Amino acid sequence: xxxxxxxxxxxxxxxxxxxxxxxxxxxxxxxxxxxxxxxxxxxxxxxxxxxxxxxxxxxxxxxxxxxxxxxxxxxxxxxxxxxxxxxxxxxxxxxxxxxxxxxxxxxxxxxxxxxxxxxxxxxxxxxxxxxxxxxxxxxxxxxxxxxxxxxxxxxxxxxxxxxxxxxxxxxxxxxxxxxxxxxxxxxxxxxxxxxxxxxxxxxxxxxxxxxxxxxxxxxxxxxxxxxxxxxxxxxxxxxxxxxxxxxxxxxxxxxxxxxxxxxxxxxxxxxxxxxxxxxxxxxxxxxxxxxxxxxxxxxxxxxxxxxxxxxxxxxxxxxxxxxxxxxxxxxxxxxxxxxxxxxxxxxxxxxxxxxxxxxxxxxxxxxxxxxxxxxxxxxxxxxxxxxxxxxxxxxxxxxxxxxxxxxxxxxxxx
Length: 414
Known about the structure:
By secondary structure, the chain is mainly β.
């Protein structure tokens, strides 16, 4: 009876990875240009999604709005361990966007709202690649809504708290390689939501030096409407691979602890630094409940992951070129939480080194145009499939990944 549900394992071994290192970049064009170093940065209201403590400093009598779009392209290449054949992922674009609004309601209290798309990916391998039984195509989209309240404790210190509502939508498609028919495939779709909390503190030790610290709790997405379907299955194997089925599961997006410093070196030059610890170790295992289908009873399948917490370091700089133009630059290094034995071609993660650049142009006192671009290069990862560990879906070979992220937006004041 256990074989009836083995075709579900690749989905969930990859689904756990969707709580890994697939962020779509800093949620704001100006912040992206700084490499994401925004825990102590007040140059853009987009920082409140990282540190709600900034809000007390950002809020004033004007309604301030920042909005824009984000596009990301992740491309991985694979060289098989036995075949030595190179396969490139097909080109896909992961779209996203952001919206922020802030306003003070009193001398000491300000409110804000952020809508962001912080996690997501779209992986698509060629239909005939050697790992098609593990994954052919997979996509994740997430949407975060965070109402925030900021309090000005005194002239130098501000605190803030935000409530996070998260919604995620997931789909995956893979081949059933034991059949010659290329239409023999399994497809999975699910969606779910969860709540979290974001708290932060911002302070200044003088006119030139500022610091920030924030903590965002993990968010558990409960997916109670999962649908699994198969096509191209011979009638004789209908009991092994049900045409349709239901499943429920949940997984946790990790917590983040960020500490940042911003130092105005000169009148025109500001440098920011961030250190972030992300709690990926909550991804120890994934438990899923498969509903009865035909003659198969309800079952629980547990997939071990053993992820590790990971660090990230980000440095950003902005330079005021003139009265209207500000140049941005950033450098970042992100550790991967995924060990070699758990690499999965659904989403290839690696230690990444990234650079970014951008600008902000002040068209008028109440309108600014912003744009940024970032490039991340991932280290070589080598996967070795272990046929005796069925909970880890993989194909042996080496992966290399690069990521391109671009964002454009506007900042308004009314």
